[in-house]
Amino acid sequence: MTETLRPRRSALYLPASNPKALAKARTLDADVVILDLEDAVAPEAKGEARAAAVAAVAEGGFGRRELVVRANALSTEWGADDLAALAAAGPDAVLVPKIAGVEDIAAYDHALGNAPAHTRLWVMVETCAVVPRLDAVAACAASSRLAGFVLGTNDLAKEMRARLTPARTPFLPVLTAAVCAARAHGLVVLDGVCNEFRDLTAFSAEARQGLEFGFDGKTLIHPDQIAPCNSVFSPGAEEIAWAEGVVAAFSQPENVGKGVIKVDGKMVELLHLDQARRVLAIAGAIAAP
């Protein structure tokens, strides 16, 4: 399944149990709002948070923002009720935690069986077990609602007993594997959170690293991270100018049908034309009201 091309530069987690956060979410510049029923919600507030998330989906008002709800795992006492309620509510996507393999995709896909067709399944990549199975899991997109990977580097660090340093060295192979598997099967792929919400310089450096790896965007834990994240993951003026030049050059009558041409003294191929068109499409979607 290939997702509609749209900006997903910034994806902000907000606790569904917080009414003020739900109201604020409708005013923020995040491309994706993730209402959290899992880590951000205490056990005694799970039922209340679920009801609030369902009400928020029904009320709408999120505009162009993609609305995602992160459920509790089916292995918990809240998971089945979360999935049933969200299937009926029909957000843009349901995000589920701690998958280990293709059997989990089948279970969550079945749990969302009554959801509207537009409701997709996104999954957290945050267990050691799933890492060697990423391609097999991503391939489930062809026969299920699966449409997105979201990195959970904090939980992965805990399982690995690794340290989350600014360079994220222990996780670089996982970031590469997740992006490759997602791209091979047409999934959205979002980078994990940066815990430095006060140090925006450190955050921006980590966001740029995610961009270099090929992520569509990054998950966030604080509204202050939205603006720098959007800036990093938006095509810049030079990139847009390059893309316009490539598209214009390939459209010239003398270049129609050619696989390789010269633009501004450099050789470009059809693969660069595809990249240029994507840059312009994303830039246009960002600029749209």
Describe the structure.
The protein has 289 residues and is of the alpha/beta class. The protein has two domains: 10-233, Phosphoenolpyruvate-binding domains (TIM Barrel); 237-287, no CATH class. 43% of the residues lie in helices and 17% in strands. The protein contains eleven helices and ten strands. It has helices at 19-25, 46-59, 79-89, 102-111, 134-138, 153-160, 172-184, 200-213, 226-233, 237-251, 270-287, and strands at residues 10-15, 32-36, 66-70, 93-96, 120-125, 146-151, 188-191, 217-220, 260-263, 266-269. The strands form two sheets. An eight-stranded parallel β-barrel has the order 1-2-3-4-5-6-7-8, surrounded by six helices. A two-stranded antiparallel ribbon has the order 9-10. α2 (46-59) packs parallel to α3 (79-89). The two termini are 27 Å apart. 42% of the residues are buried. The model has no long low-confidence stretch (mean pLDDT 95).
What Rg is obtained from the alpha carbons, in whole angstroms? 20 Å
Oligomeric state of the chains in view: single chain
CATH homologous superfamily name of the largest domain? Phosphoenolpyruvate-binding domains
Shape: globular
Q: Share of helix among residues?
A: 40-55%
Beta-strand portion reads 15-25%
Q: Cα distance, first to last residue?
A: 27 Å
Quick structural gist:
The protein has 289 residues and is an alpha/beta fold. Helices cover 43% and strands 17% of the residues. An eight-stranded parallel barrel has the order 1-2-3-4-5-6-7-8, surrounded by six helices. A two-stranded antiparallel sheet has the order 9-10.
